[in-house]
Amino acid sequence: MPDAAPTVRSGRGGNEIVVAPQGYIYVNGADFDFVGGGAPVPGWISIVEPDGRHRQVAGDIDFPNGMVITPDGTTLVISESMGGRLTAFDIADDGSLTGRRIWAEGLGPDGICIDADGGIWAQTADTAAHTGDPAAPGGACVRVLEGGEITHRVKTELPCFSCALGGAGGRQLLLLCNEFGGVDQMVEVQARRSARVLVVDAPVPRES
Fold it and tell me: How many domains, the chain?
């Protein structure tokens, strides 16, 4: 059996995975010890083709996190968390990624999701954890279109780390929230089991 992409990158493996309608599997990752305080290095996106072959299709990703593919299957969008932006690529017929461009910036994206109209839900950078301002919201997630237009915003008491569209008909936005006191406190926070999932109605469902 052919090796999958994460095994050829590093012992840390990949971070996220998405599947394109063409059958291509995309995996992202960054080969440094984030939780252990390792110095950041550029991340990557690799593709696993239907026959099991794999190759890198993008590099220099500023801490890859969430990743989605547009409903028409033509565009891959990835969170560059340390760059504060969403970056888009065109998906070529052979699965290669071309046409790199900024989808939206001035964000604090982590785990993201996309709806039937191509709107992406992502975390913002104007929260208390990012700005240090205790008057700022604990967390916030916005629906953003290509080019940066924000159409909707949801505030949360705790920082929001990931989101998904689910529920009946994919009409609910699920927000994964937890405390955050810095990378050096992540293990302690996880031990407290203080995370919660919040649910709100979504303006656009996951699928049409």
Answer: 2
